[in-house]
Amino acid sequence: MATFFRNAQRLAHESPVIFWSLAIGFSGPAMVLTVPPIRKSFGYKQAERIPSTFPVPNRPRRSVSGYEDP
Q: Are the C-beta atoms of residues 21 and 28 closer than 8 Å to each other?
């Protein structure tokens, strides 16, 4: 375990871009399990889903008039 921290420290000093990209990448799966309960404890309520279709009226369709070319 000590060698892991020593290698991580060396990587952080020599190439911080790689170190932080790995740190953020590995924290992603942990956030999937920790963020929803934290949001719920703050009182966050999920928004209603946006409709993906337009409701069609339950009546016969009328023909369009008044837009004919002269």
A: no
